Amino acid sequence: MTMSDLDPGYQLLVCRYLRDRLDALAGELHAVRCNEDIEPVHQARVASRRIRAALRMFADCFEPETLAGWERQIKRLTKELGAARDKDIQIEFIREFLCGPSGKDPRHRPGVERLLLRLTQSRAAMQPGVLAVLDRLDRKRTLAQIYGRLEEMLFSIRSQETDKYGPYVREMAAAHIRDRRTEFSSCEPALEDPANARGHHQLRIAAKKLRYALEICAPAYDGQLAPVIRMVRQVQSFLGDIHDCDVWTQDIDRFMDEEQRATTEYYGQSRPFNRLRPGLLSVREERLNHRRLVFQQLIEYRKTPEVADAWKTLDEALQSTVAASGAPGGQPQDRQIDGGQEPVAKNRVA
User: Which of 97, 177, 255, 311 is the most interior residue, by most CB within 10 Å?
Assistant: First the structure.
């Protein structure tokens, strides 16, 4: 199938979704450069991730070489924004921790304040990298090129009868969703082991991909997927919180090793580090306790009628597509659905 053969309704779905995400990203980039508030980094990161997901999903709408270049630039942007956002979240957490009972404990304060100092220094050191990737994005005119391609697609279908909820669009949407649902289900057994951090992380990534597929394809189902999206978003939120705690424990262990080594090099002994240890251990213990709590909340949430009803709604929506199309399994035969695994990353989903 060539790009000119693509269903007009499918092209319309592509254009509307990607244009909205590009608008969201472009609207945040100036504030990301200024770095006066953490929210623009968060919003830009979310938009860039959704753009990446849509470009992968709608790859047949773009020239392969051009698409590969766009994906490289957006991936670089997502990586830089993700690292900056993760650091922003950690700084915000430590500031709140210092205002709580454990943070106010004089035995804990030296270590927690030292951690905040190092996090702040690390975030400041990241900003040149953020600016560099934004400059590169401008030089490559990546966003302008994607906008241009979308305008070409819209112009080409302007004179055609466009049914954005037609059978082909729903078939393609169902195929994308089913692919991500299968990937998510294959990762769910990880929840049988509360200590399976890697498995929980892979499930988090699968939940993110499923949610993006649902959000992208939602217009083809006229609001029917709303409860499913809410449910997957909640599951993703639990898993993201769990992952944050896992990252915290790893980071604190590494930070303690590095800080103790630096203390020894500076003083010739490690004893001055002892005043920092209680505060750092208090943060670590709080994160471990929070992880246990959130994991149990996730397990309980999965037993609720809300979750069961949402999966039933999704199954009915996908089955209605199969019935309408008459295709076995509802998956078009001329399209290979992207089911590739994304490398495990430290970044939290949004």
Answer: 177
For residue 281 the two structure tokens come to: 């251990």
Q: Is residue 210 within 8 Å of residue 184, measured between CB atoms?
A: yes
pTM recorded for the entire structure: 0.87
Neighbours of 230 (CB within 10 A): 14
Closest to 242 (Cα-Cα) out of 137, 348, 332: 348
Tell me the two tokens of residue 173. 């949407």
Q: How many alpha carbons fall within 13 Å on the CB side of residue 11? A: 22
Q: Determine contact, residues 204/239, Cβ cutoff 8 Å.
A: yes
**DSSP state for residue 348 in the 8-state scheme:** P
Report the percent of the chain where pLDDT is more than 70.
89
CA distances (Å), origin 143, targets 27, 56, 73, 139: 12, 16, 10, 10
Type and span of the H or E element at 105:
none
Write down how long the chain is. 350
Instruction: Report in angstroms the alpha-carbon separations of 304 from 88, 208, 231, 297, 311.
Output: 33, 21, 11, 11, 11
Instruction: Please give the C-alpha separations between residue 132 and each of 248, 309, 328, 338, in angstroms, as whole numbers.
Output: 27, 46, 49, 30
The structure tokens listed for 189 are 């057994």
Domain ranges of the chain: 1-156, 165-326
Instruction: Report d(CA 134, CA 141) in Å as an integer.
Output: 10
Please give the structure tokens belonging to residue 302: 């999965």
For residue 347, give the H/E element and its range. Answer: none
> Please, which pLDDT band fits residue 61 given cuts at 50, 70 and 90?
very high
CATH of domain 1-156: 1.40.20.10
Question: Scanning the structure block, which residue is given the tokens 């082909």?
Answer: 168
Q: Is 35 exposed, middle or buried (0-12, 13-18, 19+ CB in 10 A)?
A: middle
Q: In b/e form, how buried is each residue of 153-172, taking b as 16+ CB within 10 angstroms?
A: bbeebeeeebebebebbbbb
